[in-house]
Structure formats: structure tokens, C-alpha cells
Amino acid sequence: MRTNAVKIAGSEVGVIKSLRGLMVEIQITGERPDVKELLIVENHPEVFLEVSLFKTDTAVCINLTNSQVLCCGQKVSRSNTKVTVPVGPKTLGRVFSALGEPLDNGPALNDNRRAISEPSGTKNYHKGKKLELLETGIKVIDFLTPFVKGRKIGIVGGAGVGKTVLTMEMIHNVTRSEKSLSIYCGVGERIREGNELYETLKETEVLKNTVMFFGQMDSTPAIRSMVGPAAATSAEYFRDVEGRDILFFVDNIYRHIQALTELSTNLGLIPSEGGYSPTVFAELRRLEDRLSSTDKGSITSVQAVYIPADDLSDPAVQAISQQLDSVLVLSRSVAENGIRPAVDLLKTTSSLLTSTIVGERHYQLAGKVQAIMQKYDSLKNIIAIVGENELSPADRTDYQNAKRLIQFFSQDFAVAERYNGRPGEYYTIDQTLDGIEKILLGKAAEEEKK
Ligand SMILES: Nc1ncnc2c1ncn2[C@@H]1O[C@H](COP(=O)(O)OP(=O)(O)O)[C@@H](O)[C@H]1O
Ligand SMILES: [Mg+2]
Description:
The protein is of the alpha/beta class. About 35% of the residues lie in helices and about 20% in strands. It has three domains: about 70 residues, Thrombin, subunit H (Beta Barrel); about 270 residues, Rossmann fold, CATH 3.40.50; about 90 residues, Bovine Mitochondrial F1-ATPase, ATP Synthase Beta Chain, Chain D, domain3 (Orthogonal Bundle), CATH 1.10.1140.10.
């Protein structure tokens, strides 16, 4: 934590009057600090208290250090600093905590740091006049949720359905170009996964164009809630100061909301909607706003979204989905049928699937695929009762083609080779469109007969 602020105690604020969990209440007798300011406890330079809110003459703070050395009556003073993280070229290839401390074995970076609570440049929103389609090589993504520069795609699903593996495959396929710059943000997930990703990137050239931030499941909610803003601060710098295009990966954005919720419980705030306090959704929007494109540069994000109890209607999942341009839904039942990636073709939606963005041919094919999948869904129920032979020939053809499409969208991933021993596959958008057309025109069926 020493890297965060050169701690010079400023004017006195007051004394600690109560302690509960991570929450520390300070009776203000002296100068009033700023919100988000770090406060210094007398004789405990290792402790950092961050001001969260005020209740008349009380400052309610969060103890960021999770240490047990505090007690009532201790004197507290201002530091006139906030939590900062290093930004800029020196951070490339490095791994940091939410407080900007190195998590690799590299040196601490003390110059060129920025406060994580102060967004920069989001007033110049820019959705990008020229829509640039990026190819991911993953058939179902390129076809249903086009990956457009400067936009946001969500990978949504319950536990163990393949969100992390799909996010890794995206990183593997889209970060290889020399010019690309990636920011990876690990929030509240397995520590092992972060280490594995770091080791994998180190073996390739990708790491030197990547900055990573982690606050995994072992961190306090305060720290977990700060990783997103920390990574956003880094992205904003590259976008606004260097005019770069950034690829931004988060696994998992739901954990950000979860951390904020835990934190507001710690602060004694009352939850409402589905156990979430309303302020957490406002904070989510603030973070998502920071991850947008401006006239200087773009941020293209891939966000994994955990669904609690496989319930897509969860208020937090809904709030996150509203911020995304495309929502790729992964489903347990699809995964159980051995289809990888386990995409639910009907629940997956994208506002970017328009003829102006993907072109007329792609757009028409997408409409046909959605129609045939819709039909498949209702035919499935009929077949369960009367059997496939009772279907009309036209229905049977559609049913068979829908099954072929589901199979077609299954593909082996380079990052999953260690699970199943099969090498990864990459498909260009044209190969994907040709394959789908072939199925819809019945050519695939003819070939099977031969
Ligand atoms: N595309 C895939 N190919 C092969 N196995 C996969 C694939 N996606 C997921 N798996 C298997 O499922 C497990 C859980 O996937 P993971 O991405 O960690 O789930 P989530 O992040 O949604 O909890 C993996 O460890 C792997 O065994
Ligand atoms: Mg995961």
C-alpha cells in the first residue's frame, strides 16, 4: 500500500468513534475531508481509510486494509489523496491490484498515477461514425453478436457454462495484432484463473500489450469494487491521452455489483430490489459510461456476466444487460448436450445485427436462422408427444436443419485444447456465412445422403 500515497498527514479530521467490520465511523471535530479521500490513522501508516459518506458530523469510512489494529478514540487526519493507479506505457505487460500495487514481481510505479474515482473525458461520447466490424473467428459470435469496434458484448451464463473459456478464446483470437492494446480486469473470480491467463499471455507476445488488474474472490468487497474503476482509469488514459483503441475484458462484471452490494450492507444501507441497493446500479452505469468511446479513441469491451441461480431475470443481470450492445446467452441445457460454446441461439440478442452493419446477406441469413430456431423450439414439444414421423415434410426438414445449425455453431477452442485434446478452429465470417447458407438451402442434407 505504500505505493498509493506518499503519506503526509494533513489537517486533523477527528477520532474513530465506532468500528464494525470494514466500516469505520469518524467523529468530525476538525476539517471535513472529501468523499473518496484517504484518511490517515495516527501511529498506523499501514492503514488506509476511504471516506464513503457523511452523516451530519460523522464520516463513514471503509477500511481498505482489512487490518484489526484500529480502536475507538484513535486520531485521524487528512492525506489530501485518493486511491490511484499507475497509467501509461510503463504499465504495459504489468499486473496490478485495485490499489495500483504490483502483483507481478516488477517494480512499483510511483509516477504518472491517476485517481480511480475520477472519470476523464466521458463528456465527448462518440459512438463512432464508421462502424468497424472485427472478426473473432468464433462462428456464433461473428454471426449473432457481431463484434463491433467501440461497442460492448456480454457473455452471460450461470456457473460453469463456459463464460471464462469463451472470454479467453476471444482474447486469444482478437488480441494478436501488433497494434492492439488490451486491458484485463479480473473481479471476484478464481485466483487460479488469473494466474493461468497471465502465464498464457506471457508465452505469447500479447502480454507486452496488456495491462492487468485483479481483485479476486479472496479480496475484501471494498477492493473488489475498485478493480473495475481501476482498470477503467487505465483504459481512459490510453484512450484520451494516447488516442488508442482498446480491447477491454472483464471477468466478471456481476462480481462488481455483488461487491458494491456487500459494501453497502457493511455501511448499513438498506437493500431493495432483489437484495440489491439501488445505488449499486447507478454505480454500475457510471463504470459502464467510462468504458465508452470518445472522439479520441475507442474502448471495445467483452464482459462476462454471472447469472445467480441461472435466473436471467435477476435485477443485476438486467441492469448489466441494458448497458450492453450484444448479449450472448450461454445455457446449461445446451452445454449438457455437448455443444461448445453453449450458446442459447434464441435468447442471444444484439442491437448491432442490422443490414448496415453486417451487410444484407448476413442480415437475411440471421433472420432465417432465428425463424428456424423459433420453429425448432415449438416443434420440439410436439415431437415429445407425437414423434418426429408425424411432422409434415416441410416441418421435418426445418427441424433437421435446426439441428444441423446447432451442431454447426459448435466449435473447438484453442484455449480448450487442454480439456479435450482437440486443436482450436478459426472461421472467417465468409466461411461461417457459407456454412449456414449451405444448411438452409438443404445442401448439407443432400451431402449427408450421398
Ligand atoms: N469451449 C469449451 N470447450 C471445452 N470445454 C469447455 C468449453 N467451455 C467450457 N468448458 C468446460 O467447462 C468448464 C467451465 O467453464 P468456465 O468457462 O470456467 O465456466 P464459467 O466461467 O461460466 O463458470 C471448463 O473448465 C471446461 O472444462
Ligand atoms: Mg468463470
